[in-house]
Amino acid sequence: MTTTVPELGGTGLRRFVMRQLQPTPLRLAVVNWIAQFTLLMIISFFQGVNTAHGNFTMQLAPARMAQIFGFSDAGSYLQAAQNLVANGRILPEWQWVYNLWPPGMVWLDALVLRLSPISFGVTIGLITALIWSAVLSVLTRPFITGLKLLAVVLSIEVLILGTSPFQSWMFDEGLMYADGLATGFFLLGLALIVDRVRVGGLLSVWIRDGILAGVAFAGAIFLRSSYLLAPWAISATAVLVVIIALVARRRHQPQRGDISSQAAMLVAASLSMLLLMQPYLTFVQQTMGRSQLVTTESLFYEYAWQDPTTEDVPEWLLSSGSALGCSIDPVTCARFRDDKAAGHPASADELRNALVVSVLTYPASYVGNRAYFLPKQWFGDEMASYAHVDTDYSKGTVSQSASDGLNPPQGIFYLILLGIAAGVAIVLARRGQWALLIVPVLAVGLLAPFAIAHIEVRYLIPIKLIGLLAPMLLLILRGRRTTAPIGNHQKPSTSDGALTILRTASPNLDHDRRP
Asked: Membrane: is it a keyword of this entry (predicted)?
């Protein structure tokens, strides 16, 4: 056997090199992820290790960070992680952290403290950039067909990354809070599902991406309690799709949009997510005697019945509209206040039931209250990222400037994207591509509880960012591809090859159909 070696002459060598540099789909995917990671690193470390994020700089010692944050979310995560590393377990005095928040950020902080060879803040910045570069590479992959277009896409991303949802909670405060990472995992799961519906492929590939999406959703749940609704929403959507697939098969109807494959993908996502959660849920049941991952829900109802006229209610609760019960039902509010003063405070169940009754009894007041606070929160300019007062972060008191003003252009931009995403998803669902129902279902599922009792900006950020799926959904709407299901007797026409690095061990693993 002989091996052809390119001639060393100028023309032959030049042709060989040019062939190797051709922008194949896999190479573009790799270049895209590297470019995304580089972009996010620049945003996170634009002043090196001295870059200021929120109330800290990246090179600060964890003990100083914990001192600065105090008992806030980030401070409690970090102090509990230090306790875990020092003692090998969470001592009783820090168990309250696991009562309020899922364990994910504590575990992550502890692993970084124990294993990372570089500083804590820099490591968290690297992890954030890695996760969000994966998200953005999946979202932008359909639009990367050449290096020039890659440059255009990156330019558009710079504009999007300049909005406050990204600046504040992904690359500023969110570096030490769980919100930025949790939102990244959540959007990654959605993007994987939408991208698979766009591309199609063999049943095994649908199941694989369903498992990966389930892993991403489980990561979001372990990092932030607001994502505990995700299993219910995804499982309900999976049941709906399975029923539709079974009815279509029973009636011998053509299964449009690979409906059986979509059902398998959603079932795989649901099962993998629940399996990953089960060990910790069992631990919580055995050690704490509860079935919930956290006990945060009861706090929402306590906040709802705090009377700002007689109690010292924090400003962030007032501005978020959390005192809903007292706003729409002063009589019940006064009764709860008197009972508490008499030493008979209401239970969380009583507070919840009373809130439901008050909403049903005074619907006009409820709608008026939500109509005032919801737009205010949606258009709010969360936190003035990178707007810091000159402070010596290494000692003394740390202060920062913040903005509670409104930013209508940003809010309108994300509202338009969300409207497009939900509208296109519904149209696609009517055409048989039912997996895309997950977009509006999860949007409503995440928003509903906070619209009822507790609206705070960070919980609206995932809803805003769902709109980033809109361009991919529009591609599916415009695209034309074969929708007949592929069985084992059929051979796919070609390999997709442009799968993201997360999903590509080699370009031959996928065997997807092209549109």
From this structure: yes
Residue 188's pLDDT is 94
Q: Which of 283, 142, 271, 267 is nearest to 199 (CA)?
A: 142
Q: How many CA atoms lie within 13 A of 158 on its CB side?
A: 10
Q: Which residues pair with residue 92 across a beta bridge?
A: none
Strand-pairing partners, residue 380, are 406
From the list 226, 208, 141, the residue with the least C-alpha distance to 511 is 208
Beta bridge partners of 52: 57
Q: What is the distance of C-alpha 174 from the center of its chain? A: 12
Q: Which helix (H) or strand (E) holds 159?
A: helix 147-161
Please list the residues that pair with 57 across neighbouring strands. 52
d(CA 173, CA 434): 36
Reported as a single tens digit per residue, the pLDDT across 187-228 is 999 999 999 988 889 999 999 999 999 999 999 999 987 787
Q: What letters, b where the CB count within 10 A reaches 16 and e where it falls short, cover 316-331?
A: ebebbbbbbbbbbbee
Contacts of 15 (CB under 8 A, 6+ apart): 6
Q: What is the largest CA-CA distance in the chain?
A: 95
Q: CB of 308 within 8 A of CB of 249?
A: no
- Cα radius of gyration rounded to whole Å, the chain: 25
How much is the pTM?
A: 0.83
Domain boundaries, the chain: 202-293
Please say whether the beta carbons of 359 and 312 come within 8 A: no
What is 454-465 written as a DSSP string? ---HHHHHHHHH
Segments in the chain below pLDDT 50: 1, 3, 384-389, 480-515
Distance between CA atoms of residues 213 and 232, nearest Å:
15
DSSP one-letter code for 90: -
Q: What CA–CA distance (Å, rounded) separates 313 from 297?
A: 18
* HEC string for 36-60: HHHHHHHHHCCCHHHCEECCEECCC
User: What local confidence, expressed as pLDDT, does residue 491 receive?
Assistant: 41
